Amino acid sequence: MSFAQALGDGAVVAKRNLIKIKRVPDLIVFSTLSPIMFVLLFAYVFGGSIDIPGMDYREFLMAGIFAQTVVFGSTITGSGLAEDMQKGIVDRFRSLPMARSAVLIGRTTSDLVNNVIVIVVMSITGLIVGWRIHSSIWEALAGFALLLLFAYAVSWGMAIVGLLVRSPEVFNNASFIAIFPLTFIANTFVQESNLPGPLKVFAEWNPVSAVTAAARELFGNTNPSFPPPDVWSLRHPVLTTLAWVVVFLAVFVPLAIRQYRRAVSR
Q1: What confidence score (pLDDT) does residue 2 get?
Q2: Domain residue spans in the chain?
Q3: Are 147 and 238 in contact (CB under 8 A)?
Q4: How many CB atoms lie within 10 A of CB 260?
Q5: CB pairs under 8 A, 24+ apart, for 166-173?
Q6: Positive or negative: CA dihedral 181, 186, 189, 194
Q7: pLDDT tens digit string along 173-194?
Q8: Which of 45, 150, 171, 265 is deepest in the core (most CB within 10 A)?
Q9: What is the pTM of this model?
Q10: Count of Cβ atoms closer than 10 Å to residue 124 Cβ
């Protein structure tokens, strides 16, 4: 089948997944409650103990929360695929005259829409607790677009894990083992310069740190008096994030399609 046909089939699968969210609204409710709790927890409980010189911690915090939220949101792709495999829905797709990549395209696209909804809710929550955007509207939109693009790339990696384990419960355990270090050993909640030795190096080259720093830069949530970071990845966070997106898509997309073909042929 042609690429256009694969996109068309993917749009049908994406619509099916979005209808599921409409019929089971608990899916979107609980995916937004968790990041809201993180905002309130760090803004009002831990924020008073974390000092960011020359900045309101809540403005420093929000880019990190956005990055963490979209990465966690990308796990829906893997858990959704694992659930579909377990329930035999993928076998039904296999019997239809549709592109094999359509299931993955539809799954990742619908989860991108889910992330859009979550980011809107998170933005409103951030504005309520005191977060403000100090850049232009175009820079702010670029910041949100970069977060969503990064989440989309990560979701293809989560798709591989979901196809490997074939059980939502196992996927949740496996994915969180990788996601927690990535989102917490980073500049999401504290400055990476405050981390000790090896953790500091890991945080400086962590892709989550890059997208967080890029979002802060595009939202205008930075302190101009801060000295520039020591490493290239954080001095040029937008370019670094785009580079990570290209690498993730170039690696994860073909691997996910290959693993899907193996999974459905079992």
Answers
A1: 60
A2: 3-223+230-264
A3: no
A4: 23
A5: 166/82, 166/85, 166/86, 166/263, 167/82, 167/86, 168/79, 168/82, 168/83, 168/86, 170/82, 171/75, 171/78, 171/79, 171/82, 172/75, 172/79
A6: positive
A7: 888 888 888 998 999 988 888 8
A8: 150
A9: 0.89
A10: 10
